[in-house]
Amino acid sequence: MSEKVTFLGLGVMGYPMAGHLAKAGHSVTVFNRTHAKAQRWIQEYGGQEATTPAEAAENSTFVFACVGRDDDVRQVTVGPEGAFHSMKSGAIFVDHTTASAQLARELGGLAEERGLAFLDAPVSGGQSGAENGTLTVMVGGATEPFNKTKPLMDAYARAVKRLGPLGSGQLTKMVNQICIAGLLQGLAEGLHFAKTAELDPRAVIEVISKGAAQSWQMENRYQTMLEDKFDFGFAVEWMRKDLAIALAEARHNGACLPVTALVDQFYAEVQAMGGNRWDTSSLIARLEALKQAE
After folding, report:
1. Is pLDDT at 1 greater than 90 in this prediction?
2. Which of 13, 50, 190, 268 has the most crowded Cβ, counting Cβ within 10 A?
3. pTM of the model
4. Which parts of 111-223 are beta strand (E)?
């Protein structure tokens, strides 16, 4: 069934996600701060452009957003020209931004006061997952709006799961990023060790990737790590943003994240090397630089 849909934010993730909704037959209105990108999206997928989030959301049953940080989410929801001011009663706002659980609960309460529903639904899978429609979506919020929205999210995801009440999606994304940070540091150290031990690191990966050490990061990042190629993928600055959210939540709930805190500092060193926009697998570049400095 075709639905009237709004998508706010046409970045690396939002652009293809909105495209999948259009290709699934939904009537999509988009908003993006950069007008040229919105026009390019319309030329590729059809649909309409609005000049503000409020205008974009006016007649839609479902409003999706994928922006940058907590403040960006507030701006497109409850800001002066935010979507909450124009959404019709019963409409559902789905936030795909990786943000704080506190923000999800805050906006969920404000949405309820306006007769709206809110879902926090961060995603994992990166740019390739968004483009290929194979994202994983972690959702927090009430069951009824989730059930209504899941068929739409299926257009760009291979796994969509409700984890609990508001904030649960964001908390699950924090777990995701905590695990990835540790995996990448371990993979970086393993490859660095293999090279230093004068092993053929590709042969090593060929063997150990068939056993218990296997991971998505190993399969998809070891080659570029060995080639010192990092100008793609999920940027270090965004990973540090995500880790900061997880570390702040840990301070609040009492969880102990010593490895996460350490890897976050390693990423700060990568940034100091000029790697702010490098892929998160660039942790190996830090190890190679330390070795050369000995």
Report:
1. no
2. 13
3. 0.96
4. 117-120, 123-124, 135-140, 157-164
